[in-house]
Amino acid sequence: MRVVYHEHSGFSVRTEKHLLIFDYLGDGLAVPEKEDQALAFVSHSHHDHFHPSVVRWMEEGRVQLITGDDVDAGGVRMKPGDRIELSGVEIEAFGSTDQGVSFLVHADGHAIFHAGDLNLWHWKHEADDEFVREATEAFEKVLDRLRGRKIDLAFFPVDPRMGEGHEEGAMRFIEVMKPKCFIPMHFWKQPEAALNMKTKQLPEGVSVYALTKPGEWTDIH
Fold it and tell me: Which CATH number fits domain 2-219: 2.60.120.260, 3.30.450.40, 3.60.15.10, 3.90.550.50?
């Protein structure tokens, strides 16, 4: 797989037969061609995850568009628990702890998870204990649905706006799911939050790839 970072939570993944585009923000990706067999995913309607270019590409027949159920853009809308297959790609929608969904995508033998805004949004520096408890319960509920699934590549938030402990959701996700490759996202132009994940003690078999500059890419074997 070749993975390219397109800013914030936006990535493209080129597999053997498909181009998968996640939460693209409209910069750095060549307009898909029909032979790319491209699928564009929009986890939810927040402006930092959804750019109208993917709708235009769908209308031009360049991509198939798959969105969370809060997006009304003419694509295939999915809610948590939905499963579909498009062009030989299996897609399952899981919950979020904010808006929309997270996606687990099986394409050409690879299992790819994009969290959207799924995270442990504890906001400990400003929230009371009850808020933190409820946020933790909501996050664990989604993790329970994911348990046992194989994940080769995961994109997951490490949002520094939460202050101390902002990586706790990512670390818990890694502990439970043990993705082979973990790529941090949603770090709001503070690349140290992504790079710091490379210093963490992780379960055996988990590798972190920190892509911090738009256009930066890596090949994952």
Answer: 3.60.15.10
